[in-house]
Amino acid sequence: MKINKIIYYIATILLTAVMLFSISMYFLKHEMIKDAFESFGYPTYIIYPYAMVKLLGLVVLWLPGYKLLKEWAYAGFFYAFILAFFAHYMIGDGQQGTAIVALIALIISYIFFKRTK
Q: With b meaning 16 or more CB within 10 Å and e meaning fewer, what string describes 45-77?
């Protein structure tokens, strides 16, 4: 049981680090992110709300309890990472590696979250 918790926390910390980097880019490098969203064909008005939703998802993952909300947060992150991977892949900017790392960390975190409960 102890090894499961260690793996869960390592994966969740890695996931949190990737997401906090992403969120910080949305706020601190807004013009760069705006250009990226435009190249994807996404509306730029969703940048700040999307960053806030990512932050709320992280908060839910770290709060004790709230099993249903955690399931929704994991699902939301899963779809976000899949879509991010394909968005970067389709425009060919070579930035899809971060989405893969985040997806792997998310899957490991989810599996070991289930094992520890």
A: eebeebbeebbebbebbeeeeeeeebeebbeeb
